[in-house]
Write a structure and sequence with these properties.
Blueprint (H helix, E strand, L loop, with lengths): L2 H13 L1 H4 L7 H4 L16 E7 L2 E7 L8 E5 L10 H14 L2 E6 L8 H15 L8 E6 L1 H15 L7 E5 L12 H5 L7 H12 L22 E6 L5 H13 L4 E6 L13 H20 L1
Parallel strand pairs: 3-4, 3-5, 5-6, 6-7, 7-8
Antiparallel strand pairs: 1-2, 2-4
Helix pairs in contact: 4-10
Amino acid sequence: MSLGYSLVKLVLKLKGEKKTWSQDPIDYIKKRKQDVHVPNRRLFLGSSYETKEHLQSKITYITPKNIKTDILLMYCHGGAFVYGPTQENWKALAKIAKETEARACMIDYPKAPEHTIDVITDNVYQAYIEATKVYNASKIILLGDSAGGSLILTLAQRLQREQKNTPNCLIPISPLVDASVTNAKIPEVDVKDIILSLKGVRSANTMCAGSLSLKDPLISPLYGECSNLPPIHLFMATDDILTPDQELFVEKVKQNKGEIDVIVGKGMPHVWPILPIMPEAKVGLQKIITIINSVINDK
């Protein structure tokens, strides 16, 4: 374990992060105190930006000084469907855009409990359809962490189901794939997870699902169609309660002869590539940049 990771663990403990995820109902109002809907210019690392309203979403486009590709990076942030984006989301996306010299956009979608999963997923879908009016679908890469990882997977499943053009590839980071979180392996991982806890995650998912079952494919891509999806580069962590379900998702994609590459953060927590300070996070983020650059170089 690096010194940086030790510091992150200490800060999370002092903030009571695990405790906030151990509440039912989850205090989403408190979680929203870390929201950054209108980011400070310094977060963009010299890139310009423009925010547009679309349906109930805010879509912020980040344009690096030197664009050398016609690829568009579309990012869905995490936050258990109830909060976000946070400063960490913005910093990660700005870094990725700068290093790949590609235009990127953050989809700040509507949140639960004010909005349920049908509205949230449709906002993401419509943002993608709007983007395809300017970009060829094969030039779009979808990224998302946690709940955002779930949203890009369910988006790809919907596009496949409706026989719409799918994106070049998907990069989900610690995605939620089964909102019911009933996997028998989860409790033993809960002890090691320094961020999430079963009770709070299920509470947030219930707020988002509305009248739907927590195992409905609209909120749980594990139960959706996993054949003919775009190539997937999935980042998971050994100390994350969402990992046991991600392992089932990986097997299902493989059984359907899908292309899925798994990057495992050993001893790492939830969404480790976008956490601050940690050298392990820098390695994870660089891996994401390398994946995107390989797509750019193939074009």
